[in-house]
Amino acid sequence: MSESTVQKQTGLQGLSTAILLPSVSLFGEASELYADEVGPLTSVVGIGLFQRTVLTLQRAGIRQLMVLVGPEEDQLKQALGKGPRLTIPVRWMPIREFPLDDPRTWEALAAEVPGFCLLSGVQGVFASALIESLRHEVQEGQVIVVARSDNERDRRPRRSTVRMKVQAGRLCSITSRQDDSALVAADLVVFPASFMSAAGQADVETGVAPIRRWLERAAVDGHVRVLTTEGNKSHWYQDVRDLADVRAAELKLYNSLKGEFEGFVDRFFNRKVSRWFTRIFLAIGLSPNVITILAALIGLVAAAGFGIGTYSAGIAAALLFQLSAVIDCCDGEVARLTFTESPFGAWLDIAMDNVVHMAIFAGIAVGSYLHMAGSAGAWVPLALGSAAVLGNGLSFLLVTRAQKIKSASEWKTPVQAAWSDFMLKNVASRDFSVIVLIFAAIGKLDWFLWMAAIGSMVFSLLMLWVIRPSATTRA
What we know:
The chain is an alpha/beta fold and about 475 residues long. The chain has two domains: about 5-240, Spore Coat Polysaccharide Biosynthesis Protein SpsA, Chain A (Alpha-Beta Complex), CATH 3.90.550.10; about 255-475, Four Helix Bundle (Hemerythrin (Met), subunit A) (Up-down Bundle). It has helices spanning about 5-10, 50-60, 75-80, 105-110, 130-135, 195-200, 210-220, 245-255, 265-285, 290-305, 310-340, 345-370, 380-405, 415-425, 430-440, 445-475, and strands at about 15-20, 45, 45-50, 65-70, 90-95, 115-120, 125, 145-150, 165, 170-175, 185-190, 225-230, 235-240. The strands form three sheets. Strands 1, 4, 5, 6, 8, 9, 10, 11 and 12 form a nine-stranded mixed β-sheet that branches.
């Protein structure tokens, strides 16, 4: 039984297949237009364009790939064999055996596609959310083409772009002439398999894919919908045709980074500073888990500094704790940029965060006790520190349980799921590192212990209230 037959029988439906054209542009643009032209192996944030395209499609839910490849087949196979693990099947189809201008090639490909097929070049970097949107937007008998706005780089001499006139979300016509009102076609088009098979006969140049002719023919009947990347920051797309485009693509990748749980300080300070450390960690090749451990070690040193109990030590420890919070952003950033996310890495990140937080509470408690040694209330910081550590430990266990319930889609009611997401996104963040710094600056770290003790206990009780019904049902 062939691989494609097995996949069809396992229920692959909708948009689950992609055909890549790494050797040519999707719309037949000639090669070697630019002195510093890039290729499918050109590195963008440490990963080649071809490999990044494949891994982005895999992350977005594509379950099988077919590659119409030219003479660089061996190099591309070697590139895929390195780095992050590829978990979806890839079928290599040499262009010399499957010519792009031969209708039989597309009829054979259509026979292998269950439902819809994404055709993509590798001359761009795009968000996985864009592909996920395409997968949700497919409709029977409809073609979808991704478009972006025109810009100054598209107007450079020798820069060949396909512009589209769009009305009410439908493609009206295609042109290569500059027009301020036109959108520029990206190398991402979704076709129903039946359309690919029926539209095989098209008058195209030798060696050129018939994609443009197909779109022109389908547009006449109003069957081409246009999904624009404008107005939705998560649906970004960046052409990569020369070295200037590489820099622009890397900037978009860095700007797209965002953690699942972020507070105000994370969003407007930690993330902006962490990008510089992320670049350094990528350059020296540190893995996300190593970065997690590094951030934890800095946090533990900060906790020891708080334990000294002097004002200057408290300031230095608070600054180290803030540095730990910044570096703690980098492990997720590196993982997302290099496709090295893992369940263990996510758990390790949360576990180390909580270890550091409990150590910080304990360190501040010890330092405050030493500062107040000999007074009648010297025991209060130790009691508050113990309560904060206990509350943080309970919160960690309950948050872990909530994430398990979420991953298994076992929330008893939508209200519980919404409350859990709200608490994790708005309460369980790194923002309190700045609060620690403020209290250290005014010499009142013992006041912070009251907030930490009360806050951690209240948070754990609220989480227990939120997950108890679902946890009981799950058990």
